Amino acid sequence: MIKRALSLSAYGWIMNSNRRINTKQMPEGVWDGLGVEIAHKIELLSAFTDEKGKMTRLYLGPAHRRSVDQVLAWMREAGLEAHLDAAGNVIGRRPGNGEIQKSLMLGSHIDTVRNGGIYDGTLGVLSAIAVASRLHRAGVQLPFDLEVVAFGDEEGVRYPTTLSGSRALAGKFDAKVLDEVDADGISRREALLAFGCDPDKIGELARDPTKVLGYLEVHIEQGPVLEANDLAVGIVTGISGANRGRVRIEGETGHAGTVPMALRKDALATAAEMILAVEREARARAEHDAGIVATVGRIEVPNAAVNTVPGVVEFTIDLRAPTDKTRSETRERIALALETIAEVRGLRADVGFSYEAPAAASDPHLIEQLAAALENTGQPAFKLPSGAGHDAMSFSGHIPAAMLFVRSSAGVSHRPEEYTSVEDIDVAGRVLLAFVAGLAGYE
Ligand code: HGY
Ligand code: MN
Ligand code: MN
């Protein structure tokens, strides 16, 4: 039986009304071929890249634009009224029969990291479109509206702050980020205008939480746990919180041949000691809190030359932890360690954390409904945390949100070898369809 509690309003409505919302059984055939359909579209979408031969699709770039046009077309084929919103999200909507005046949101993101994989984000968007398409083709009228979203700024590669699209829908958009500039000095505002979006209308995108049943995101696990347990899918219990920081070190540029070692203020050697300190602090904490991770992913040495002592260096810090307390304590320890290193070496260091996303627990009612959908599709209701960030975390505290993870082959992601099998994609598609069916009162 799929009947399980959801958010009381919807569940209460479903069980207490004496009207049969819909026929009790999903029409035959609606379940077939989901995996092949979704996997095929993932391949097609992967052609839209900013770097030939690599999977790089940055927010508001040319590849994002072509992907938006393709996703709009697929959404319309799936019976969704589709448009591009002011924040660069692609929104598809199919009205329900009006019996529940709320919408169910499904989706994920279509932007990628540089030279990434083709499943990260796109799997969730295309699974949602495929489920909408099956319901449409089978003539299944849901009692609630169905909204499918393709967010465009989840990876946050082009601009320092990420999750701008989902934060806009969650009513958490901070207009200050419109002034952030990318590596070419193009502001987010300019990029949005060039993309055909109106940045001044982003504030109007916030969804009324009383009108949303919840948000469910299907996403690759990007880690080894499901594979280690020989499982295709799993329920995400919560998402680690994150900080992103930037460290600027100022020393003295000098001639590599003439500045004696004892007189140097070498910014790159200082950065090297700092990067090891970041790793040391996180490793020490991870011994009793396995979920804490810290990464220096980018370092820039302006005007670098083989025969010049670097005077300025900037590097990034990505810090995550399952609890906000652990993360803030570790952030403070890292900042202190870096400032001490700079002081001892006689250089200046600015350690700034510009971006913060609190840890986000999944909604218990949605977890229960997801567990029912897994049960109805013959899958164990295995639960696991997410160390990776996702759009789902933007909704925390505003709209019930949950995630379904799908096995990542060898647990790898954010690289070309990222892979999820058609069979696992099919399982996830069936679970997603069963989840929607369950919410709509189908057996
Ligand atoms: O950084 C993350 O966790 C996600 O992949 N954007
Ligand atoms: Mn992702
Ligand atoms: Mn990612």
Task: Characterise this structure.
The chain has 443 residues and is α+β, with helices and mostly antiparallel strands. 33% of the residues lie in helices and 20% in strands. Strands 1, 2, 3, 4, 5, 6, 14, 15 and 16 form a 9-stranded mixed β-sheet that branches. The longest helix is centred in the C-terminal third of the chain and has 22 residues, at 324-345. Mean pLDDT is 93; it is low at 1-23. One manganese (II) ion binds at residues 113, 120, 155, 414.
Keywords:
binds manganese (II) ion, 9-stranded mixed β-sheet, disordered N terminus, binds (2S)-amino(hydroxy)ethanoic acid, 33% helix, 443 residues, 16 strands, alpha+beta
Round the mean pLDDT to the nearest integer and report it: 93
Work out the radius of gyration: 23 Å
Order of helices and strands: HHHEEEHEHHEHEEEHEEEEHEEHEEH
Give the distance, in angstroms, between the N- and C-terminal Cα atoms: 6 Å
Say how many strands there are: 16
Broad shape: elongated
**Unreliable segments of 5+ consecutive residues:** 1-23
Give the ligands present.
(2S)-amino(hydroxy)ethanoic acid, manganese (II) ion
- Tell me the helix content: 25-40%
Total of DSSP H or I helical runs spanning 4+ residues:
11
* Biggest sheet character: 9 strands, mixed
Structural class: alpha+beta
Strand content: 15-25%
